[in-house]
Amino acid sequence: MLLAGAGPSLQEAASHAASVHPLISQVLVADNDKLRHPLAEPWAELVHLVQQKDGYSHIIAASSSFGKNILPRAAALLDVSPITDVTEISGPQLFVRPIYAGNALCTVRYTGGGPCMLTIRSTSFPVPSISADSKSNAATISQVDLSTFSEDADRKSRYVKHTTQDTERPDLGSARIVVTGGRGLKSAENFKLIEKLAEKIGAAVGATRAAVDSGYVPNELQVGQTGKIVAPDLYMAFGVSGAIQHLAGIRDSKVIVAVNRDADAPIFQVADYGLVADLFEVLPELLEKLPEKK
């Protein structure tokens, strides 16, 4: 496992990573101020440097905005073709990934030179069980030699700021319950009904691209092919028509519940439970009758 950043928090993360799972044999730590923020240029250069030194067979990152920002650039530096959005690993060089917005699955065999570089759709893999004695078998922690790391290279991007919403709601990418609103909510003020419902049942809030483009919510809440891929136990969609790029991001959900007044909305084709009704009648009733989360 490769960790990078700067300061005491990096060392704390390394100690945690070393004991988080018994299959981790080594934690590589790159401590440098240029790696404090997740910019593609220095991070890709770091991956290139580590690979040139140690020659790994596979390099894997999550299919998050972080992983998808860095891995393609690192692959270009290493002159290999990455395989993205992997949902199943069938063998050391054999992988399954969705195509056509999730409407089909493609089995890919990697035949290029090393390393094989992958981004993994983490929602497609179960969380592994961790043995009680895993901490007693902690992995070794090694510092990456950064003597050849180019700190003053010509960077084409720079860190400006990081913003986040102050909320106690679960993270959208890993939440057990997700409540999503679409353009049918008609305004940012009405979207607060979704947020109230999410707070009441302990869910994460999601949104369609149409709702984000309309300015109802910030784009970090977007669910779909061009947003976040989710796989909760329960996915509730209000005023969501079911555009193909949105459905691509929710297909792994265990149970999908849809509320839309258009009986022909595509969302009903994938929903386990559907209600053809006015969401402005349904949401207030849910808020009134659902018990508070414990």
Identify the notable features of this structure and list them briefly.
single chain, 294 residues, alpha/beta, 5-stranded parallel β-sheet, 14 strands, 27% helix
Topology:
Blueprint (H helix, E strand, L loop, with lengths): L1 E4 L2 H12 L6 E6 L8 H15 L3 E5 L2 H14 L4 E4 L1 E4 L2 E6 L4 E6 L6 E5 L19 E4 L33 E5 L6 H14 L2 E4 L1 H5 L20 E5 L5 H4 L7 E5 L7 H4 L2 E3 L3 H11 L5
Parallel strand pairs: 1-2, 2-9, 3-8, 4-8, 10-11, 10-12, 12-13, 13-14
Antiparallel strand pairs: 5-6, 6-7
Helix pairs in contact: 2-3, 4-8
Question: How would you describe this protein?
Answer:
The chain is of the alpha/beta class. The chain is built from eight helices and 14 strands. The strands form four sheets. It has a five-stranded parallel β-sheet with strand order 11-10-12-13-14. It has a three-stranded parallel β-sheet with strand order 1-2-9, with helices on one face. Strands 3-8-4 form a three-stranded parallel β-sheet, with helices on one face. Strand 6 (94-99) and strand 7 (104-109) form a beta hairpin. Helix 2 crosses helix 3 (65-78). The longest helix is centred in the N-terminal third of the chain and has 15 residues, at 40-54. The radius of gyration is 21 Å and the shape is elongated. The mean pLDDT is 90.
